[in-house]
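Re: beginner question about structure tokens

> Can someone show what the tokenized structure looks like for a real chain? I only ever see the sequence side.

Sure, here's an example I had lying around. Input first:
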Amino acid sequence: MRGLLRALLVLWGAFTLVFVIFSTVPDPARQLAGQQASEQTVAAIRAKHGLDQSVTTRYVRALAALSPIGMRREATTQIGGESATSWGLRAPSLGTSWVSERPVVDVLLEALPGTAILAAVSMVLALLLGLPTGLLAAIRPGSWWDRVVVGGSVLGMSAPSFFVALAVGYVGAVRCYDWTGLPLTGSWIEVDWQNGPRIAWANLILPAITLGMRPWAVLAQLMRGAATDVLEQPHIKTARAFGATNREIVYRHVLRNALNPVLTSASGWMASMLAGAVFVEFVFGWRGLGYTLFDALEQNDLPIVMGGVLFISAMFVMIQAFTDGAYRWLDPRAR
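And the corresponding structure tokens:
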């Protein structure tokens, strides 16, 4: 119950913060209509989207639309009759897009698979590279490999995402195109006029490397530090004294105990990928949630932006709940 209340507070705080930020936008109706539009057109847009109401009224109405309990319409079976309204359970609403006039939920669900694929592949790539490199650096402290991992992870954590995206795109798709054959831009679905739509896995390689570079650096550092701490514990020395091999020590003692902080960090980076993929998707033309939010910002489509932020916050809460369960399974002391 406490976890559910905390999750609801996080979602409410994210919604309130985004609403306050976008409430300071000067006259969104004028920006939607254009600078040459008449005052009658601008006034009609304000009335259509409720922008002629006070900020408090718009906030209460938007918050009420997110509630699963409220007024709902019930279709009548009588010919020519009107639909009745009653209190009960209903599906929460994120509103309607100001530009396409489509439900925000439909727009976000349409873009979610692209970001989910990109984030999942990037995280798997970071895990497959970060865990072994960090563990090997902890087993061989002071070696050349340890220095390479430490230096590379520091560089990966400090490099800005936009710089990494431009550098990876330039090297992988421009300078080395004859060797890699990878395109600079492209979405996860391409339309073949003969065979229909297909998944373009080649377009995923460069954005996945870019998005997974910083999580790899963090995971490698965490794995190295956690494994080093475990290797210095007294029970490891006791296991060595009883003749345990390095393989047994790593798999039976080091790996599972060192995964606890790594798992917590991995969950946080998985959630942050959903929010941090905006620039990566824009650079590589990967049509996902980040690309949709960037496009909505350019078009002043505030319902899409607010719904996207709330959607990402909900994903973060769900990932954190899953991480707590996995953490308790790995470490019985947390139960």
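Each token stands for a local structural state, so reading them left to right follows the chain. The CA atoms of residues 277 and 290 lie 5 Å apart.
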